[in-house]
Automatic annotation (TrEMBL):
Belongs to the SURF1 family. It comes from Microbacterium resistens. The lineage of its organism: Bacteria, Bacillati, Actinomycetota, Actinomycetes, Micrococcales. Pfam families: SURF1. The keyword Membrane applies. InterPro entries: Surf1/Shy1. It is a multi-pass membrane protein. Keywords: Cell membrane, Membrane. The keyword Membrane applies. It is found in: Cell membrane. This is SURF1-like protein.
Amino acid sequence: MLRGRWIGMLVLCLVVAGVFAWLGQWQLGRAIDTDPTPPGATEEVLPLGDVVEPGAYLPGPSIGQRVETRGSWVPGDFLLVTDRINDGVEGYWVTGQLRIADAEEKTSLAVAIGWAPDEASARKAVERLEAEADGSVVELTGRVITDEGAVPPPRTDPHRMTRMSPAMLLGQWHDVEDLSVYRVFLAATEARGGLADIDSPAPIEQSPVNWLNVFYAAEWAVFAGFAFYLWYRLAKDAWEREVEELEERTA
């Protein structure tokens, strides 16, 4: 084991183990959030612009953050989203395009305005909301939620939407030329147009420890130990073979 070849392999194992140890330390550093979001932070109402910008993705800690904003409804853009569960009951969301007031450029935000138990009730709410969309500025409070992702509509109804997706809504909105759009949508706290309030509880607070990363860090430590074991096993096997050959020659 003290021969040059095995000493060289030991040095190589030390380098490999050192790399594994560094990777384990890096993974462990990512496993613990040293600056976690304070409990109840999402319940503080913040200006929308302080939480997310148009076209930007919503940071993980800000998902479900309560925000406030103001703007005017765009007529003709009150659309329905199906398969919405509210307090365990399936129904419809009525959504709208809110043109943000006082924005530096033409900017819109998708808003889930309220919930209806059936399509007929949702259509009636749309009629009431259309009548109120006279360009006046309204103030809204709600939770910002990430895009649920676009899915192809059924062939029988190409305008039907089952996901709350600003990207899909944008395809049916009016006056979208040179429009800047938020990737997130707002689930309004108080419904309008005779709709029921959307059930939108506070997000579950996450643990500051990411146990998956802790597991990965432990794996790197095992790999580092295995590098030394592999060197020891190979060197010992070579030594045992040499001893056996020497004994055979002696015999």
